[in-house]
Amino acid sequence: NNSFTILAIESSCDDTACALVRSDGTIISEQIYSQKEHIRFGGVVPEIAARAHLYHLRNLVEKMINTSNLSWNEIDAVAATCGPGLIGGVIVGSSFAKGLALSQNKPFIAINHIEAHALTVRIPNISNIQVQFPYLLLLTSGGHCQCIEVTDVGHYRHLGGTIDDAAGEAFDKVAKMLGLPWPGGPALEVLAKEGDEDRFALPRPLYGRPGCDFSFSGLKTAVGNLLSDYDTTVPLPRTLAADIAASFQKTITQSILNRLENAIQMVSGISLLATAGGVAANKYLRNHLLNLANKYNLPFIAPPMQYCTDNAVMIGWAAIEILQQARQNHMIIDDIAILPR
Ligand code: KG4
Ligand code: ZN
Predict the structure, then answer these.
(1) Is residue 30 a contact partner of residue 19, using CB atoms and an 8 Å limit?
(2) pLDDT at 338 over 60
(3) What residues contact residue 300 under an 8 Å CB cut-off, 6+ apart?
(4) For residue 272, how many other CB atoms are within 10 A of its CB?
(5) What's the whole-number mean pLDDT along residues 170-179?
(6) Quick check: is 126 in a domain?
(7) How many structural domains are present in the chain?
(8) Is residue 338 part of a domain?
(9) Is 249 in the same domain as 321?
(10) Which residues take part in binding Fe cation (predicted)?
(11) Is 340 part of a structural domain of the chain?
């Protein structure tokens, strides 16, 4: 029996998450705690995030193992995000995972958080088609915005990325200016539904230029400048806030689409267009990504919302892909690969 099971941990930002994932893609059990500790600060506070991971992780892992009915001898390896991310949280999660691996005499697999986002669309049952390499990925979250050609497990071509803010950062900062609660992205999307997206013309940095780098800080500043015409010491009228939200969402979507279209022209032979990262949870953006994919006759795959944002299932799945590749390359020690990563 070649099937194996990974216990995975994610703690690189403000989600404390753990999952048990089987090599056939079955999600046996998962727990996630989206830290509420940051709400009153209007943004993630790294020190508080690290302490919250420390406080919650053990209970979550215990709860997950208990609900799974698995015993330790049915778990083959432990994986954790080892970067990139907020270093305090990364240290908490990866040290906890290494401790578990050591105490249970299991291999430990270090996972790159971006690689895990990149491979999420390949989790069986998550996509309705089997995603084959190579494919083009738009990864857009609170910390990242990049176009990646995913050629194989471990082989990624960075085609372009943001030269200033990530798209999620722009969503969050604009939401904050509009007086929306943190995290701003989802709240802004809801408000934008009521708004007139054509009311305000906002700049689209890099629009029409070659390449697929992104820039969002000018757009963010433009919203700030727009608001300087209004009294922001009192709550904004709801229609005004909604119109700004809708105009911003339309503009940032157009920017992303323009850059991504260049990326599509920079690659050849891709099987599909995929997306991942928290901002990919935005339905307005997803609809436009689907239209763009249709224009180029590419299937479009977006993971369900809970696997677009940070989660431990993707960490477990990345470990599975890495181990399966190692097996194919005969890098096998004992009954599971121990990787030189
Ligand atoms: O991938 P993620 O959970 O964490 C990392 O940054 O790695 O992404 C979180 C980001 C936040 O900026 C959040 O506001 C944004 O994704 N986001 C959204 C939506 N849902 C989450 N932005 C726009 N629309 C959404 N529906
Ligand atoms: Zn992420």
Answers:
(1) yes
(2) no
(3) 272, 273, 274, 275, 289, 290, 292, 293, 294
(4) 19
(5) 95
(6) no
(7) 2
(8) no
(9) no
(10) 113, 117, 310
(11) no
Note whether residue 32 is domain-resident. yes
The reply to whether 165 and 242 lie within a common domain is yes
Supply the range of the domain harboring residue 90.
5-121+308-328
The ligand whose atoms approach the alpha carbon of 281 most closely is: 1
Closest CA to 20 of 30, 31, 10: 30
Q: Residues 256, 219, 214, 38: is their CA dihedral positive or negative?
A: negative
Q: What is the mean pLDDT of residues 297-309?
A: 94
| ipTM score of complex | 0.97
Residue positions in the annotated binding site for substrate? 139-143, 172, 185, 189, 282
Q: Would you say 57 and 93 are in contact if contact means Cβ atoms under 8 Å apart?
A: yes
Q: Name the pTM for this structure.
A: 0.92
**Distance spanning both ends of the chain, measured CA to CA:** 26
Same domain, 232 and 253: yes
Tens digits of per-residue pLDDT, 87-133?
999 999 999 999 999 999 999 999 999 999 999 999 998 877 889 99
Check which CATH number belongs to the domain holding 244 and give it.
3.30.420.40
Residues 45 and 158 in one domain: no
Structure confidence by residue, pLDDT tens digits, 22-54: 999 999 999 999 999 999 888 899 999 999 999
What are the tens digits of pLDDT across the range 231-266? 878 889 999 999 999 999 999 999 999 999 999 999
- Nearest-angstrom CA–CA distance, 27 and 6: 10
Q: Using alpha carbons, select from 207, 239, 247, 199 the residue that is nearest to residue 223.
A: 247
Q: Which residue owns the Cα nearest ligand 1 atom 21? A: 278
User: Is there a single domain that holds both residue 234 and residue 273?
Assistant: yes
Q: Is any ligand 1 atom within 6 A of the Cβ of residue 134?
A: no
Instruction: Report in angstroms the alpha-carbon separations of 96 from 41, 56, 112.
Output: 27, 12, 16
